[in-house]
Amino acid sequence: MRFASSLRTVLKDRLTLFRTARDGVAALEFAIILPLMLTMWLGTFEVGQAIAANRKSVLVSRTLADLTARATTISNSDMANIFAATAAVIYPFSSADLGMRVTSVKRDSAGANKVVWSSASGPGMSALGVGASVTLPTGILTAANQTVIMAEVKFFYKSPTGWVLSSQALTLEDKTLMVPRQVTEVTRTS
Fold it and tell me: Which pTM does this prediction carry?
């Protein structure tokens, strides 16, 4: 009986010590919350990178339209230089995943928007055929013989870690329309 009584006392004392002990509680709580914290941190990083890539693709589109709309005539070497200068805007992301197309669109006397010339560079883009119809937002070209430069960009963004966002590429697209600045129509030579 004495043994059982002392065993109960010892167990009761140990239980009281365990219940009141605070050693290691912070470590245990940290171990429980660590996976959630890592997921949130990586998610913030990945989503932030994707937003930055989307913003860069918009800037590429605007730069491509702007550089083209400033010209009066564009040769093959001029177009290559415009594509190279524009591709630099996507840094620090890879320009190998960047597709660009610039097109001059003219409204004809029948009110249709037709391709005058088109050039493309990079993956996922090809030049539009001369004379092809193009749909533009209402009010962009309102009279016959008006022209506009249309710059289109596709950027294939790949997540750096693939933890939160898919490891497959996200296709970020943007289109910018800009009126030629110095002439009514930017001409393309050769």
Answer: 0.77
